[in-house]
């Protein structure tokens, strides 16, 4: 089947690689963008790296697209192109860790030497012991050591005992199992491959570590590029918990004097007190005194511990555990120093979850400067996604990726170009830029789908403006009427767990005969399978359903979105970035919250039309998409060109006709 957008995208990538000019490509659902970038990649002299955000896309490339492509081009190239998958070290079983883990007594992932064994130890040890025995047997048979090839799998607690985080690895030269290391073997395969498939998380770590992990290459394709900045933010984020400090103290105790280890334990105790007293949320007016005391104790104790541990040598009694202790203490000490420095480029907050876990977290205010410095130089970058042209323009995404933008930002809610210029200065940080090396172009190849004929975008403009995180009675009534008109086949995307549960409660009471599937009541794969198979069902859930759920055909003909997905006021990073823009004279809401909502909304709306024959309705129960003069048109311009209406009777009639057909 001919796809003009796919051909246009492939030609543009080939041209960008030849001219060594960066390229942003928006490719709508159904374009076939994977082949559009894989085919020209084979014409590049040297290896090409493809980075994805999701395991689903990575699996599609490795298991489906690349083998088919290799078969097709082998007669033309007179050789078979090769490809490899590159993942982080923790994805591979570590032979040194496996050898040092006792079935009878696993290491300090559960508890440490000298600590009293908890009552749960006997049952936990038996379960973990069986997993470790099976992992040992598997390690003797596997060619890759890749966790994704272990079937059946093991849970995270068992895998943690036999894998090695990159920061704790002593390196192949100092490890007794270096010559047999699965992670090192995966890197060797990647160095020899024509195309290397990796993920955004490892790409971020590679950039932050000086580009020492991923093999040198001339072309980098970033698929699902709208998620890259967030993944780099996550990789740059760090946290401290009392449990981490106590574990570090126990790990280094065999290599330091008791007073040094005790100082680290004291820091953990002080941090426990500090986090118990501090409210959750951003730290904006300086560190609370007790928190500052805990960090100072950690800084001093950590420095002494590192000096006492000294150099890790290959002939040490246990170089792996010694390196783990030194690395862990070193990492925690650096985090304490970073928080104590109080840099204006970082955001610090106190975090609590429903299980009582507490932490102090720090993350960069912006990663645009990091991306500008480390992503684009000495290679050509092609960034692609179905959602790059927010508000119909590429500038917002380009800024978030650290690319220079010379045109004024969209006016959005303020219309003040000086303020927008100040916003750019804040979010792009203060890194020096050689803009001549960052020439870039953009392309929107559209989609093969006829959105205006295949779908309706309905905004319930008559509903009151949403006021709470739950589902209002008028919105609930609207939801019931829409679902009843179609008889099911509805994917409900909600902004909060409370709203999703309220929707399930109302539909179960007022829509008899329709199966209501609620996220959290069963595993997500099972819920999605049931939704596909039962035409009289509705699947309701929260943010993880907004992207990645693919249900083509008539199993999903109505997507309901309860409210515009702006970040919550208590999301620390978004709030801090908004405050930074406000303080510079701009509109933080327009500059930060609206683009976030645009990406999320486009991803959610994209769940409806997944094939040329799909038909249906996207219903947004938030009147602001129609009534907000500033950002409403911007958000609508970020969506596929559906036929647009605010008339409820018309939409219910269309849904009834779909049900009858």
Strand-pairing-aware structural class: alpha/beta
Largest sheet: 7 strands, parallel
Strand sequence of the main sheet, in spatial order? 3-4-2-5-10-1-11
CA-CA gap between termini: 27 Å
What low-confidence regions span 5 or more consecutive residues with pLDDT below 50? 103-122, 408-436
Number of helices: 25
What is Rg?
26 Å
Mean of pLDDT: 87
* Secondary structure: helix percent: 40-55%
Strand residues, percent: 5-15%
Shape: globular
**Using DSSP, what is the number of strands?**
18
Description:
- The chain is of the alpha/beta class.
- 46% of the residues lie in helices and 12% in strands.
- It is built from 25 helices and 18 strands.
- The strands form three sheets. The chain has a seven-stranded parallel beta sheet with strand order 3-4-2-5-10-1-11, sandwiched between helices. A seven-stranded parallel beta sheet has the order 14-15-13-16-17-12-18, with helices on both faces.
- α20 links the parallel β14 (515-518) and β15 (537-541).
- α1 (4-19) packs parallel to α2 (33-41) and α18 packs across α19 (497-510).
- Mean pLDDT is 87; it is low at 103-122 and 408-436.
Q: How do you describe this structure in short?
A:
The protein has 661 residues and is α/β, with parallel strands linked by helices. The protein is built from 25 helices and 18 strands.
List descriptors:
seven-stranded parallel beta sheet; 661 residues; 46% helix; 25 helices; alpha/beta
